Amino acid sequence: MPQLRYQIPCPNCNNTMRNDSTICAGCNARRNLDECHRRVADISPSERFWGKVEITSACWLWNGSRNWTGYGMFSIGHQHILAHRFAYMTLIGLIPEGLELDHLCRTPACVCPEHLEPVTHKENTHRGFMALGGHPNSRKTHCKNGHPFLGEHVRITTAGSRRCLTCKRNYDALRYQEVRR
Length: 181
Fold this sequence. Notes:
Layout: E1 7-9, E2 16-18, H1 25-41, H2 45-50, E3 53-55, E4 60-62, E5 73-76, E6 79-82, H3 83-91, E7 100-103, E8 116-119, H4 121-131, E9 154-156, E10 162-164, H5 165-180
Antiparallel strand pairs: 1-2, 3-4, 5-6, 7-8, 9-10
C-alpha cells in the first residue's frame, strides 16, 4: 500500500514540507548555496583570478565574464573590478591617482601588465581614436548639407569641434524669420 503524502512543518524553519522529506525546499536551497559559498571562500581571490587567465604568445586573455565593451570583470565578494585593473594592482602596484590604464595591445580582454600603461583619460581616448584612424568626425571633409569644412566656411568651437558657418547662417536666418512673425 502506497504511503500517503501530507504537509508537515520543516524542523529548521517551520515552512511546510512533504512528510517524506527531511528538509524543506527553501532550507535545501540555502544549504546548497552555503556549501557553494564555502567552496568559493576556500579559494583566494588571486587563485580564482589566475584560474580564468589564458596566457598566449601575444596577450594574457581573460576567460571569465566580460562587460558589454569586452573588458574582463572580476568579483571579490560583492565588489566588481575590471580584470586588467586587478592584474595591474596585483603585479605592479596601485594605479596613480587621476590616471587610467591604456591597453597598448588594443585588446580589451588582455590582463598582461606589460600591455597596460597608466595615462590620463584624455590620452587614453586619443590613443583609442588614433588606433581607429582618428576621431570619426575628424575624417569628414563636408558638413551634413554638403558645405566644405574649409576656410571661411568653418568655425572651430571652444570644445574643438568644427561648425559649418553657412549652415549656421541659414539656421539663424530661419530663426530670425520665425521670431519676427
